[in-house]
Amino acid sequence: MPNFHIALLPGDGIGPEVVDAAVKVLDATQQRLADVTLSYETLSVGADEYLANGDPLPAATVERMKQADAMLLGAMGLPSVRWPNGVEMTPQIDIREQLDLFNGVRPIRLYHESHTPLKGYGGADGKPIDFVIIRENCEGLFSERLAPRVPDRDFETDTMKITRHGAERVCREAFKLAAKRRRHVTLVDKANVLPSMAFFRKIFDEVATEFPDITTDHVYVDAMALFLVQHPEKFDVMVTENMFGDILSDLAAGIVGGMGMAPSADIGPQHALFQPSHGTAPDIAGQGIANPIATILSAALMLDWFDQPETVRGARLIESAVAVVMADPTCHTADLGGETSTTEISDRIIAALSA
Ligand code: ATP
Questions:
Q1: Ligand 1 centroid to residue 283 C-alpha, Å
Q2: Which residues face 107 on adjacent strands?
Q3: Ligand 1 midpoint to CA 282 (Å)
Q4: Which atom of ligand 1 is least distant from the CA of 277?
Q5: What is the pLDDT of residue 147?
Q6: 286 Cα: distance to centroid of ligand 1 (angstroms)
Q7: Which of 7, 265, 339, 345 has the greatest number of CB atoms lying within 10 Å of its CB?
Q8: Rounded-to-integer distance, Cα 140 and Cα 157, Å
Q9: Whose CA is nearest to atom 13 of ligand 1?
Q10: What is the atom index within ligand 1 of the atom nearest the CA of 258?
Q11: Taking the CB of residue 8, how many other CB atoms lie within 10 A of it?
């Protein structure tokens, strides 16, 4: 019987609360699957680990993570814990780079019309919102954030680095995903201004010729911010560089209920990590009110990625249970205007698994 060993990285803030909820749902799902077991190992990474031991991402912990079949991460970093240059600790970004998790998959789906601030979406007659942002995770505008800096000069720069290798592989993943969906890929860039983005567009167009059955278009990132509010139903798969993907992910989450509704997968050639798109939400940490749906849906993405008939079935079971629970407007966490607690949401999802 295959066993999948999962490294749990709960992290900081609300991270441990949402990971705990997701593991309960995974355990209940496993009981309904034949011939699959899940085992876990909890690893300490993040701002709290830095405060305890002086390193937010110890090398020995990264080695343990590499041994696992997949990683499930909560959230990392705290505004009060910073490096001497003033930036927050972001081991979740370091992990993507160290493990080459270049393919950031961010599905955006509206589960109930009451979750969106937009009119005319969801519900029986409303337009659906159902698209995926593919974010390049290992280069782009984040690429030289750790480069050594000259101290005390009166300017700083950041570099938008796009390599042929990096652009080709992430565009290819976008097309492969679109082939399983509605067969359309939108490139989001700023090719009218930035040479790095014109280069990205050239490579996107080259990769597109490998997928003649898939239609494409190009949208500038500023226009995409507009279109995601005006016509989100028009998009299927979009691919973009690191920083643009970071920003558009939050905007996209905002139109389906907020950060607590946005799951993600960070996938590389050898390793994969699954986590909610949100951060540590220190404003609500420790209160038991965080929305665990994004983490629970990330756990479903992980089961999909294991790619066994039974784990894929488990992913669909979780998604269906989430849809059932989210259809009930009396069962919502505070971010969606309700009063249901984190653990009550996971209990309701577990009950819906059995229904
Ligand atoms: P990061 O930069 O680390 O991604 P952030 O600064 O963008 O983090 P978040 O921690 O994601 O911010 O929080 C943004 C807002 O969304 C906060 O008001 C927070 O309370 C809310 N939020 C984030 N995640 C959740 C969640 N799971 N449930 C409820 N509210 C959430």
A1: 8
A2: 132
A3: 8
A4: 4
A5: 87
A6: 14
A7: 345
A8: 13
A9: 281
A10: 16
A11: 20
Question: Ligand 1 pocket: which of 89, 332, 335 to mutate (most atoms <8 Å of CB)?
Answer: 335
The three-state secondary structure class of 294 is helix
Name the one residue in this structure whose structure tokens are 């970071």: 246
Contact 246, 225 (CB under 8 A): no
Compute the distance from residue 109 Cα to the ligand 1 centre, in Å: 18
> Beta strand pairing status for 184-189 and 37-42?
unpaired
Q: What integer pLDDT is reported at residue 117 of this predicted model?
A: 96
Do β-strands 70-75 and 237-240 pair in parallel, antiparallel, or remain unpaired? unpaired
pLDDT at 355 over 70: no
Please report the domains of the chain, with CATH numbers, ordered by start residue. 1-101+269-355 (3.40.718.10), 103-146+158-267 (3.40.718.10)
Q: Does the beta carbon of 336 sit less than 6 angstroms from any atom of ligand 1?
A: no
C-alpha of residue 172 to centroid of ligand 1, in Å: 30
Q: Using a 6 Å cutoff on CB, does residue 260 contact ligand 1?
A: yes
- For the chain, what is the largest distance between any 2 Cα atoms, rounded to a whole number of angstroms? 63
Ligand 1 contact via 275 beta carbon (within 6 Å): no
User: What 3-state DSSP class applies to 198?
Assistant: helix
End-to-end CA distance of the chain: 26
Ligand 1 and 280: CB distance under 6 A: yes
Q: Which atom of ligand 1 is nearest to the CA of 92?
A: 3
**Closest ligand 1 atom number to CA of residue 291:** 28
Beta pairing class for 184-189 and 272-276: unpaired
DSSP 8-state symbol, 89: P
Q: What share of the chain is helix, strand, coil (3-state, %, to 5)?
A: 40, 20, 40
Render pLDDT for 165-186 as a digit per residue (tens, 0 to 9). 999 999 999 999 999 999 999 9
- Supply the pLDDT for residue 83: 86
Tell which residue, 35, 45, 34, has the closest CA to residue 68: 45
User: Could you identify the atom of ligand 1 that is nearest to the CA of residue 18?
Assistant: 27
Q: Which segment of 144-148, 237-241, 289-293 scores lowest on mean pLDDT?
A: 144-148
The residues with which 104 forms a beta bridge, in sequence order, are 135, 266
3-state SS class at 340: coil
